[in-house]
Amino acid sequence: MTDCLFCKIVSGDVPAEIVREGARVIAFRDINPQAPTHVLVIPREHHPTAAGLAAADPGLLGELVGEAHRVAEDEGIAGTGYRLVFNTGAQAGQTVFHVHAHVLGGRGLNWPPG
């Protein structure tokens, strides 16, 4: 996708602070962090939403979630707890339509969010 910000990060055309990367998944710090740890985990392949990715390649969705947990371990928040968020659609706050998981932690996270 030529106009997708996250595809441009994957291709190296837009810089990002990469924290983990593998053959099919990449993780980088959010430029507007909402918690001390705020990392986005995305598939390299473009899929607009989590539901779309689940329908097209459920194994890749599993890899994405597994990579999110490894990010939490690397960041030292796996033991104390972290939030994994997929916003799907504009009403839910999705602003980049390339599926991405937010890994949030490092502080108490209230419920309900928002």
Topology:
Layout: H1 5-11, E1 18-21, E2 25-29, E3 37-43, H2 50-56, H3 58-75, E4 82-85, E5 101-105
Antiparallel strand pairs: 1-2, 2-3, 3-5, 4-5
Helix pairs in contact: 2-3
InterPro entries: Histidine_triad_HIT, HIT-like, HIT-like_sf
Pfam families: HIT
Protein name: Histidine triad nucleotide-binding protein
Please bin the fraction of helical residues: 25-40%
Q: What is the strand arrangement across the widest sheet?
A: 1-2-3-5-4
Rounded Rg: 13 Å
Structural class: alpha+beta
Mean pLDDT value: 95
The CATH homologous superfamily is called: HIT-like
What is the CATH class name? Alpha Beta
- CATH third-level topology: HIT family, subunit A
In CATH, the architecture is 2-Layer Sandwich
What does this structure look like?
With 114 residues, this protein is α+β, with helices and mostly antiparallel strands. The chain has a single domain (5-105), classed as HIT family, subunit A. The chain contains three helices and five strands. The protein has helices at residues 5-11, 50-56, 58-75, and strands at 18-21, 25-29, 37-43, 82-85, 101-105. The protein has a five-stranded antiparallel sheet with strand order 1-2-3-5-4, covered by helices on one side. β2 and β3 form a beta hairpin. α2 (50-56) crosses α3. The protein is globular. The model has no long low-confidence stretch (mean pLDDT 95).
